[in-house]
Specification:
The chain is an alpha/beta fold and 450 residues long. The protein contains 17 helices and 13 strands. Among the domains are: 221 residues, Pyrimidine Nucleoside Phosphorylase, Chain A, domain 2; 90 residues, Aldehyde Oxidoreductase, domain 3 (Alpha-Beta Complex). 44% of the residues lie in helices and 14% in strands. Strand 4, helix 10 and strand 5 form a beta-alpha-beta unit. Helix 3 packs across helix 8 and helix 5 crosses helix 14. It is globular. Bound molecules: uracil. The site of uracil has 6 residues, from helix 9. One of its GO terms (molecular function) is thymidine phosphorylase activity.
């Protein structure tokens, strides 16, 4: 949709003034403003003033829906109708975490159950890992296929996990860049429209959202996480894409590993059906159930669980992953010979605690930052990533650690880097004598209200 500014009554500064003064915004004016951002008719200064006004005064639900749909429609919106896919188009998005390899298992798993998943993933951001960085541990994997190839892979395998390309929600690219340097990132209306503006441009029938809570979460408090989950579920649903948001625990790494290749190794084990009751699989399964139900592939939770169980134990989910990897340029025998392809770090060492004890809690953000410092993530968005580094076998809350059972295994480029990461990990893990239990994994479910 191309809006012509001349059809609209308000100048950008008048729209900004309304929000500055706490007045309601005419919804069609939001659309014109966002289109003006995509067309470069609105300046960075105007974007900054607008986002600060929203930061301070908030937005009504209707305003957030309008901002979301305008962001979605500011660039190319994918259409799947012409492919006549025999199943629903569904996707998942997460606010990001540490050891959060959910997408890598979830996409192939629900695809093996009949869903189609055109997943646009991101790179690591801050302390969180990125699905795309992890996939690029696989030699040859091309996360930027031509659009026709992307459609073809989604159609033939049921899932393709790729990176964001040029014309997807271009208004968000500008808005986010300005928010980053104007202290206006932490606004629930703006976060909602930013995430959904991009995600809904994939032309989805249904979406599930994994909003994290805890020391490794993007949102600073449980209350804010909850507010974001509710906002996303309702706004996406009102924008026409039925959405459920789960609130899940990120007070410790979700899988017992954090890094790139190490998380791919774990993904393969999980897809082979090993550790089906691990915390990461519990979260993945809950999201999968919501996707199958929202996509109307099943009539009940029980039916969803049965279908998922079969897709895992039969090897169908693993097979979908293997085919996706190969279709996107990776080795045909990656699943069978992954150790032949994945980079391994020159230094691999156990990190023992200074004293024995039971893991009470983990500063998950610090663990993520330690992986970044090892070279597994980036501090600048143009930096490259070392796929081989990270932590594996990370102890969980409630585990006893001592001079036999380490806190983790560190994978590093050098002895020095390993020693630094080991010290950071010891600082990040609080030990005590008392038994400790992990926080509840699935803390809440918000089904969007239309
Ligand atoms: N991720 C996004 O894409 N946008 C935000 O505003 C915050 C997180």
């Amino acid at each position: 949709m191309v809006a012509n500014a001349s059809h609209h009554a308000l100048l950008p500064q008048e729209l900004i003034r309304l929000k500055r003064d706490g007045e309601p915004l005419p919804l069609e004016e939001i659309e014109a403003f966002v289109q003006g951002i995509a067309d470069d008719r609105i300046s960075d200064a105007q974007i900054g003033a607008f986002t600060m006004a929203v930061f301070l005064n908030g937005m009504s639900r209707e305003e957030v829906v309008a901002l979301t749909t305008a962001t979605r429609d500011s660039g190319h919106v994918m259409q799947w109708d012409s492919l006549n896919l025999p199943g629903p188009i569904v996707d998942k998005h997460s606010t990001g975490g540490v050891g959060d390899l959910v997408s890598l298992v979830l996409g192939p798993w629900v695809a093996a159950c009949g869903a189609f998943v055109p997943m646009i993933s991101g790179r690591g951001l801050g302390h969180t890992g990125g699905t795309l960085d992890k996939l690029e541990s696989i030699p040859g994997y091309n996360p930027y296929p031509a659009p026709e190839r992307f459609s073809k892979v989604v159609k033939s395998t049921g899932v393709a996990i790729i990176g964001q390309t040029g014309n997807l929600a271009p208004a968000d690219k500008r808005i986010y860049g300005v928010r980053d340097v104007t202290a206006t990132v932490e606004s629930i209306p703006l976060i909602t429209a930013s995430i959904l503006g991009k995600k809904l441009a994939s032309g989805l029938d249904a979406l599930v959202m994994d909003v994290k809570v805890g020391s490794g979460a993007f949102m600073p408090t449980p209350e804010k996480s909850r507010e974001l989950a509710k906002s996303i579920a309702n706004v996406a649903t009102q924008a026409g894409t039925p959405t459920t948001a789960l609130l899940t625990d990120m007070s410790q790494p979700l899988a017992p590993c954090a890094g790139n290749a190490v998380e791919i190794v774990e993904t393969l084990a999980l897809l082979r059906g090993e550790r089906p009751d691990s915390r990461v699989m519990q979260v993945t399964r809950e999201l999968a159930v919501e996707m199958l139900m929202a996509g109307k592939l099943v009539a009940s939770r029980e039916e969803a669980l049965a279908k998922l169980e079969k897709a895992l134990t039969s090897g169908a989910a693993a097979d979908v992953f293997a085919r996706m990897v190969h279709e996107l340029g990776g080795p045909a025998d990656f699943m069978e010979r992954s150790e032949h392809y994945l980079a391994t770090a020159p230094v691999i060492q156990a990190v023992y605690p200074e004293q024995s004890g039971i893991v009470q809690c983990i500063d998950t953000r610090a663990v993520g930052m330690s992986v970044v410092e090892l070279g597994g993530g980036r501090l600048r968005n143009d930096a490259s990533v070392d796929h081989s580094v990270g932590f594996s076998e990370i102890a969980e809350v409630g585990d006893r650690v001592d001079n036999q059972r380490p806190l983790a295994i560190v994978h590093a480029r050098s002895e020095d880097a390993a020693a630094r990461a080991a010290a950071q990990l010891r600082d990040a893990v609080t030990l005590g004598d008392a038994p400790a239990t992990a926080d509840t994994l699935l803390q809440d479910t918000f089904r969007g209200e239309a």
